[in-house]
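User: Predict the structure for this protein chain, please.
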Amino acid sequence: MNQDDLLVVIEKIYEAATDTSRWPVVLQIIADAFGAEDASLSAVSPVAVPWLVAPRTDPSFLQSYGQHYHPLNLFWDRMTRVPVGTAVTDRMVLRQETLRASQFYNEWSRPQNYLSVMGATLLVEDQWRFDPARMGSGRSR
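Assistant: Here is the predicted structure, written as structure tokens:
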């Protein structure tokens, strides 16, 4: 991504911060910039997912994530141990063998071709984490 494209993305992020209806478009732009299948933004706690935007993810999978799979997400669990503002990939926080053997990976991620993930926590407040992430296929787009 060149500097001009980066500045456009930053501008779009600021616009979405003041108008949450803009997040789906911004997340698609971010996903495309990284060559990812999708990008997401969420507010999550250890037991709840009250807000999750992932515009290219099947809505039924988003619903199942909030209802069942969030506590099983090993990447999210490891992210809770990473300092705020630190971007990491799944391979930086857990062994691939562990991830690939997990129920979350096999039942939720793999069926959508989300074979890798990168994320960071932007803010932690009263056990709530605000996390952007991008999900990739493990292949170039």
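The two ends are 14 Å apart (CA to CA).
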